[in-house]
Amino acid sequence: MTMPFLPSRKRLSELTEREIVALAIASEEDDARIYRNWAAFLRKDYPASAAVFDAMSAEEDGHRRLLLDMHQRRWGDAIAVIRREHVAGYVTRRPAWMIENLSLERIRAEAAGMERDAAEFYAHAAQVSQDAGTRKLLGDLAAAERGHENRAHELSEQLLPADARAEEDAVAHRDFVLTWVQPGLAGLMDGSVSTLAPIFAVAFATHDPWTTFLVGAAASIGAGISMGFTEAASDDGVVSGRGSPLKRGLSSGVMTTVGGMGHALPYLIPDFWTATTLAIIVVFVELWAIAWIQNRWMQTPFWRATLQVVVGGGLVLAVGVLIGSG
Description:
Blueprint: E1 10-11, H1 17-42, H2 47-75, E2 87-88, H3 104-128, H4 132-159, H5 162-194, H6 196-206, H7 209-234, H8 245-264, H9 272-297, H10 302-325
Parallel strand pairs: 1-2
Helix pairs in contact: 1-2, 1-3, 2-4, 3-4, 5-7, 5-8, 5-9, 5-10, 6-7, 6-10, 7-8, 8-9, 9-10
C-alpha cells in the first residue's frame, strides 16, 4: 500500500540563514505585488491613495534588491524556493480576490499590519543570523519596516493632502451606503412592513401562535429570498456605481428576513395574547429603527422618516388585525 505524500512545513526557527534570506526575498516580492494590486484597485476612485501604495511598492522593491545583492555575495544566484506557505506559523496574506471585500480604511489598516509582521520577522531573523553583514542588513530592514508606518504617514501627507483624503473618504462613505445601507434598509422596510398584514391576519383569525409563527417564518424567508435575488439581478452596479450585486443582494435578503422574523418569533410563545403583545412591541421597535437608519445614513429628516415609516407601518398592522378579526 502506498502512503500519500504529506507535505511538511518547517518552523521559522528551523530555517538556515540562506533559507531565511530566500523567504525574505519572496516575502518582499509578494508584498510589493500586493501594494501594486491595491494601487490598481484603488486608482479609479481613490487616485491619491493609489499613489501612496505605488510608493510603498517601490520601497518593497528596494528591500528585495538589497536582499538579492546580499544573497548573491554569500551564496550565489541560486535562491532556495521557499515561500510563506512553506513555513509553519508564518504570517499569511489575503488572497487577491478578497480585496474587493475590503473598505478603503480596512486596506490602510491591512497595510499597517503587513509592515508590523515584516518587522517582527526581520527582527527574529537578525537574532538567529551568525554572519555580521547579514545580521546588520536584517536589523536595518526590521527598523525600516517599523518605520514604514511613519513612512506611510509621510507619503500620505505628500500624496494624500487633507482635501484629497476628505474627498476619498466621502467616496468610500457613498459606496458603503449604496452597497450595504440602502439595499439593507429597503429589505428591512419590506420585511418589517409587508409581513405585518399576513402575520397579524393569521394571528387574529386563528388565535394559534404556532400556526402564526409558521406563516410568519415562511413569509419572512420567502420575502428575503425574493428581495435578495431581485436586488442582485436588477442592477450589476457597473453603470449605476452601486457596487457588487452579490453584496447588495445579500444585504437586502438578510435584512428582509430579519425584518419579518422580528415579529414572527414572539409567536413561539404558547400564550396568544402574550405573544401578540410582544410582537406589537417588536414592530414599533423595528419601525423606529428604520426611521433612525434613514435619518443617520440617508440624511432623511427624522420627522419625515417617522411619518413615513411609523404611520405607514401602523396602517398595515391595523389592516392585518382588522382582516384577521373579520
